[in-house]
Amino acid sequence: MIDAETTIDAKSIDAKSIDPDPIDAPPIPIDSPAALPDAPPPDAPPSGGACSRNDQCPHPDECCINLGGPIGVCGPGFEIGDDCIPDPT
Questions:
Q1: Torsion angle, alpha carbons of 45, 75, 66, 89, to 10
Q2: What pLDDT was estimated at residue 34?
Q3: Total structural domains in the chain?
């Protein structure tokens, strides 16, 4: 247990003499936290043409062209399983 006067590393520290509030700057006021927008439901079509699955593309002749990455874009193509082959025309 540490009492009001304790020796640490051969130095005497008097706990009574330590200023409990050593910072003389005024406290920063905290505003109300910013409201975060609600995320769309996971199955909702993404905005801006970005997609991660074929069923997220709004037009029947489009599928999610992702070129091997997790996020792609909706564009004309052919669905083969979960993949999308871009229409070369």
A1: 170
A2: 62
A3: 1
pTM value is 0.45
Q: Would you place residue 76 in the very low, low, confident or very high pLDDT band (cuts 50, 70, 90)?
A: very high
Chain position carrying tokens 């792609």: 72
pLDDT higher at 5 or 75: 75
- The answer as to whether 2 is a domain residue is no
Based on C-alpha coordinates, what's the Rg of the chain?
Answer: 31
In a domain, 78, yes or no: yes
Residue 72 in domain: yes
CB 34 within 8 A of CB 50: no
Nearest 5°: the CA angle 10, 15, 19 is 120
**C-alpha dihedral sign at 37, 43, 48, 51:** positive
Residue 51 lies inside a defined structural domain of this protein: yes
Provide the sign of the torsion angle of the four alpha carbons 4, 7, 9, 14, taken in this order. Answer: positive
